[in-house]
Write a structure and sequence with these properties.
Elements (H helix, E strand, L loop, with lengths): L10 E12 L6 E12 L3 E5 L6 H8 L7 E6 L2 E2 L5 H11 E5 L10 H11 L6 H10 L15 H13 L5 E5 L7 H18 L3 E4 L3 H4 L4 E6 L2 E7 L3 H10 L18
Parallel strand pairs: 3-8, 3-9, 6-7, 7-8
Antiparallel strand pairs: 1-2, 1-4, 4-5, 9-10
Helix pairs in contact: 3-5, 5-6
The chain binds adenosine-5'-triphosphate (ATP).
The site of adenosine-5'-triphosphate (ATP) has 12 residues, from strand 2 and helix 1.
Organism: Streptomyces glaucosporus
GO molecular function: ATP binding
Pfam family, one: ABC_tran
């Protein structure tokens, strides 16, 4: 306690020796097997790896949706370990935004009401100009009064992103946020996430199977058998696909996705 700032103070998400074990002695699976990583504020991180490598478990433990078997998770400086369920729920509501593959909008509510829902759930009064700004940022100013059923998939995901941004969370976790979108719409949504990092200094962590999606991030973490086995800074889709191929991620080479340059 000498007043020197912690070198990790800028790390919004910090995992230290996190292990998550499922099953018993006969069917034991180490879904996470000693993961230590810090994710800096204002960074965009993609998490990739073969099926079953632990991506969802990583996201769930980092976001306080699941508890590690051992190790610590700090979110915006708060140790999640000692928190009870109620405190965890509050922390998720106050400091975390989520964007899922299924947009999870409420069909009866229009765009504005879907976007402001987390604020109202937290007992906070939506600030009209801030809400207008975020809706404009995601390109839905002319759709404010439409319901989700009247919007395209890409527009619905934009609503979900606005809803995640409006609380100014410490971090947004994305679970395959472009998984249900066509290539063109996916690129628009990824560009929007990238812009949120730039304009709002937003921290984003995104699980994806898609090298093109991962290439929008600042850094890609590769998981295999519950461990972070490599990382790629300033990734390109071709380099990500190549790294995944080395991890045996595609199983059958002929089913591997091709990037723009044909790399599998
Ligand atoms: N609730 C659970 N009970 C038992 N085993 C589980 C449970 N959840 C995950 N696992 C196991 O933990 C390992 C990691 O799973 P996880 O879902 O995190 O992988 P993933 O990389 O997200 O996979 P995918 O890309 O297929 O979604 C897998 O072997 C999985 O079978």
């Amino acid at each position: 306690m000498n007043g020197t700032p912690s070198p990790y103070a800028h790390e919004v998400v910090k995992l230290d020796s996190v292990r998550k074990i499922y099953g018993g002695s006969k069917n034991r699976v180490a879904a996470l097997d000693g993961v230590s990583i810090g994710l800096p504020r204002g960074s965009f991180t993609a998490v990739m790896g073969p099926s079953g490598s632990g991506k969802s478990t990583f996201l769930h433990c980092a976001a306080g949706l699941d508890r590690p078997t051992s190790g610590t998770v700090l979110l915006d400086g708060v140790d999640l370990g000692p928190l009870g369920e109620k405190e965890l729920t509050e922390l998720r509501r106050e400091r975390i935004g989520f964007v899922f593959q299924a947009f999870n909008l409420l069909p009866a509510l229009n765009v504005v009401d879907n976007v402001t829902l987390p604020l109202r759930l937290a007992g906070r009064r939506p600030n009209r100009s801030e809400v207008d700004e975020v809706i404009e940022r995601v390109g839905l100013a002319s759709r404010r009064n439409n319901r989700p059923g009247e919007l395209s998939g890409g527009q619905q995901q934009r609503v979900a992103i606005a809803r995640a941004l409006v609380t100014k969370p410490a971090v947004i976790f994305g679970d395959e946020p472009t998984g249900a979108l066509d290539t063109y719409t996916a690129r628009e949504v990824l560009t929007l996430l990238r812009e949120a990092v730039q304009w709002a200094g937003q921290t984003i962590v995104m699980v994806t199977h898609d090298p093109v999606a991962a290439a929008h991030a600042d850094r890609v973490l590769f998981l295999a058998d519950g461990r972070i086995v490599s990382a790629l800074e300033r990734p390109t889709a071709d380099l990500v696909a190549e790294r995944m191929t080395h991890l045996g991620a595609w199983g059958n080479e002929s089913t591997a996705p091709r990037t723009s340059h044909g790399v599998r």
